[in-house]
Design brief:
Blueprint lengths: L2 H6 L5 E2 L15 E8 L4 E9 L2 E9 L7 H15 L11 H17 L4 H6 L2 E2 L9 E9 L3 H12 L4 E4 L7 H4 L5 E2 L4 H5 L6 H11 L6 H9 L1 H12 L3 E7 L9 E4 L4 H15 L2 E3 L2 E9 L2 E9 L2 E13 L8 H7 L18 H8 L4 E2 L4 E7 L18 E3 L13 H9 L6 E5 L1 H7 L1 H4 L1 H9 L3 E4 L2 H8 L3 H17 L19 E13 L2 E2 L6 E3 L5 E7 L16 H19 L1
Parallel strand pairs: 6-7, 6-14, 7-11, 14-23
Antiparallel strand pairs: 1-5, 2-3, 3-4, 8-10, 9-10, 12-13, 13-14, 15-21, 16-20, 17-18, 18-20, 19-20, 22-23
Amino acid sequence: MKLYQKITCALLIVCAAVFTACGGSGKLKDGTYTESSVGHNGTLTLETVIKDGKIADIKTVESSETKGLGQAAVDLLCRAIVENNSIQVDTLTGATISSNCVKRIMQETVKKAGASDKTIASMAAVAVRPAAEKTSYEYDIVVIGAGGAGLTAAITAKQGGASVAVLEKNGFAGGNTMVSGGGLNVAGSDLQQKNGITDSVEKFTEDTLKGGDYKNDPVLVGIMARNSVAAYNWLRDDIGVPFMQERVQQFGGHSVPRACVPVGNSGYTITEALVKKCETLGIDIFYETKAVKLLKENDVVTGVEAENGGKTVSFVAKKGVVLATGGFGANVAMRVEYNPAYGSEYKTTCIQAAQGDGIVMAQAVGAKLVDMGYIQVYPTCNPKTGIISYVANSRFDGAVLVNKEGHRFVNEGGRRDVISQAILAQTDKCAYLVWGSEIESAGKMTQIHAKEFEQLKATNLLVQADTLEDAAKAAGIDAAALAAEIAEFNSFVDGKKDPKFQKTGAFRKIAEGPFYIETVTPSTHHTMGGVAIDAQTRVQSVSGGAIKRLFAAGEVVGGIHGTNRLGGNAITDIIVFGRIAGSEALKD
């Protein structure tokens, strides 16, 4: 078995006590038990089979947990519970809420099966983290971070003949890439050609520079745009990522539709394929392994010191280290340090692992940082959880934003930062996304993201009604004002021009029911600042020149997006520069 497989399956707990003396019968009562609790995204329901007094099987009946993240925690913990016949299991790093939800459900389940509170509380358990087998390893290339950029760099290096290790502090792979919508901007894709869309590298470059207020590094932006087609083709042909053939999305700030969207409209589609490719190539992924220090000798980065299973493990990198640790969107203290405007009042779309670890490690070896104060918020997120609403991608199909008073207030197809600031200026610092059957039939967001749709309705964050008036009343919006606003908007569609807010992107009427109104608010989403790199992804030193054998790709890098990242550019960024980093590290 590959090390990758062993460590993936090793989130198990060796228990010092099992259910052998529950209640007065000495066994749990046989039967099938169904229990629910609230996880990260919504209700989680598990069905547990107890046979011969032991936990024989656990199945997920209902789940809104994120694929590959929360759901990975659910699957692995359930497996651990069955294999050890105990509910005393450890949480999966990076998925605490989902892990605790499983434990709550199982506690109620065994109570129903006859276990007393005293019995449950008295069961001691020894947590065994998935530890590396040795305290020192040697590879050609060590990649820190198993998100989209890190996995891409690892695959590229491995295909180039290198031995590669990937260090991931979470118990799962995917990073923020996994919880994104997965769309990547491509100038000149086959999908654009198929849909008659004219585009160019120059146009893509200009849109990106303009979107970042020309604070971006034009060299890096040009590299991203020129290599976008190759990155997309690589994902499609080499990695096997399936893309929606009927959809080319136009995110805010782009002059034409150019985003290729993976099937399912989820970054998990991409990261799942990347992980499978790593497994096929025999790349070693060390989960629950937190890199804490870059090792350096005579101004050359030689490896990584990491923590795994309670011990220090060193990873020697004979050719180079690739930093792909992501940004710091979930680190409130770090956000405030560089931009006090983004404090704890903001929830985040980022996974909790987005703490800026790689930036701190790089800084400790003399890396230059750029654009650290540029922090982006995403405009249409769940007000209760902070996570991105993908049902709200109806905005890209023509849905409009109104405030509680029923009035539009911004160009819905504009830049994320502009829309977010406009929403925060409204009553209750939230907005209401409004659309009807014309827009729904075009994008089918409630179908593509059916689980989220049902969860939003269950938590009263989205209402559906046959008439606009009924929808407005259910959402708590001024119905008369909204009716007048939508009537005016529909007249703009007839005239093919929005004189009020100069709406860009899709322009469709909202006239036929059913109607949908979703409550949204901004959350921190992307940190544009990070380590400075050159065209070869070599990390730059504060004293000038490159730090030898240290490369970086993904959100840990600054300078590419300027003040504001345009939607769809993150995935293009991580694939383009991840491939470059993996290739350049081979050359050292």
